[in-house]
Design a protein that fits this description.
- The protein has about 140 residues and is mainly β.
- Helices cover about 10% and strands about 55% of the residues.
- Strands 1, 2, 3, 4, 5, 6, 7, 8, 9 and 10 form a ten-stranded mixed beta sheet that branches.
- The longest helix is centred in the first third of the chain and has 16 residues.
- It is globular.
- It starts with a helix and ends in a 10-residue tail after the last strand.
């Protein structure tokens, strides 16, 4: 039985190692805010594409996948069913583009704190990370 469990663990491990999360961050939120946005880069080192299909955080009631679209002179956010991550490629969630929307946050996000985040991929399964909370008015510098 132990050999079977070890074999299953080793077989599953490479899938999890194939997706890497980099530069995960969010802006601090003002008192009373109910939503926050999360940004990060997803690197897929596997030879097959993957898809981010869901996300969750104990800091929010729910986490949605959104994109920002320009319609005429107006920018609008739309919920999408996830993000396709190319094989041996990356996908960046950034201000003005694709992002995670933390809905009904339970407390304001404070600069210098970290927000736990679980990402669910079709192939790689669950990947846990944290959003580093930066200033309300600017994005943190990469490589910190």
């Amino acid at each position: 039985m132990r050999l079977l469990l070890l074999s299953l663990a080793l077989a599953a491990a490479p899938a999890f190692a194939q997706v890497k999360i980099e530069n995960a961050w969010a802006r601090a939120t003002p008192p009373g805010a109910k939503i926050a946005a999360g940004y990060l880069t997803i690197r897929n080192e596997a030879s097959a594409p993957d898809k981010l299909v869901a996300a969750s955080s104990p800091a929010a009631e729910k986490v949605e996948t959104h994109v920002t679209l320009k319609e005429g002179d107006v920018f609008r956010m739309r919920e999408v069913t996830g993000y396709d991550i190319p094989a041996r490629g990356s996908f960046e969630l950034k201000p003005g583009g694709a992002h995670l929307m933390l809905v009904n946050i339970k407390a304001p996000l404070k600069e210098g704190t970290r927000v736990p985040l679980t990402l669910r991929f079709e192939r790689a399964g669950e990947v846990k990370t944290e959003l580093q909370v930066g200033r309300l008015t600017e994005a943190p510098k990469h490589g910190h």
